[in-house]
């Protein structure tokens, strides 16, 4: 087993792709966030995740940086995705100098 060096990413965004989240826009949310951070050239990794076990709160998105923030009932193509983008930016700013 090797330990991975992923220091090029300061923040990791996980978008649930479980069956309930998938029906509530998980794929679209993932694509929108991934595209946004890919073209912004920020040290952010956006990944698909299997079920977080919070199906009543679908779709679930986790922002894991210097602190973790969990978001539920996230809607695709909505101000919710913009709020997650803002949370990622706050996380990146909080990590400056750490």
Commentary on this structure:
The protein has about 100 residues and is of the alpha+beta class. The protein is about 35% helix and about 20% strand. It is built from three helices and four strands. Strands 2-1-3-4 form a four-stranded mixed beta sheet, with helices on one face. The longest helix has 16 residues. The radius of gyration is 13 Å and the shape is globular. The relative contact order is 0.23. The model has no long low-confidence stretch (mean pLDDT about 90).
Write the layout of secondary structure elements.
Elements: E1 11-16, H1 19-23, H2 26-40, E2 44-49, E3 61-64, E4 68-71, H3 79-94
Parallel strand pairs: 1-2
Antiparallel strand pairs: 1-3, 3-4
Short description:
The protein is of the alpha+beta class.
The neighbouring-strand order within the major sheet is 2-1-3-4
The helix/strand series, from N terminus to C terminus, equals EHHEEEH
Overall form = globular
Computed structural class? alpha+beta
CA radius of gyration is 13 Å
Give the mean pLDDT: 90
Count the helices. How many? 3
Distance N terminus to C terminus?
28 Å
State the total count of DSSP E strands. 4
Major β-sheet profile = 4 strands, mixed
Taken as a percent bin, the fraction of beta residues is: 15-25%
Specify the oligomeric state.
single chain
Helix content class = 25-40%
Residue stretches low in confidence (pLDDT < 50, at least 5 long) are: none
């Amino acid at each position: 087993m090797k330990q991975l060096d992923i220091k090029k990413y300061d923040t990791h965004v996980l978008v649930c792709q479980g069956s309930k989240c998938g029906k509530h826009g998980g794929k679209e949310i993932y694509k929108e966030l991934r595209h946004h951070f890919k073209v912004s050239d920020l040290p952010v990794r956006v990944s698909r995740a299997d079920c977080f076990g919070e199906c009543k709160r679908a779709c679930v998105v986790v922002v894991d940086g210097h602190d973790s923030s969990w978001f539920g009932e996230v809607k695709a193509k909505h101000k919710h995705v913009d709020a997650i983008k803002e949370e990622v930016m706050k996380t990146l700013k909080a990590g400056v100098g750490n």
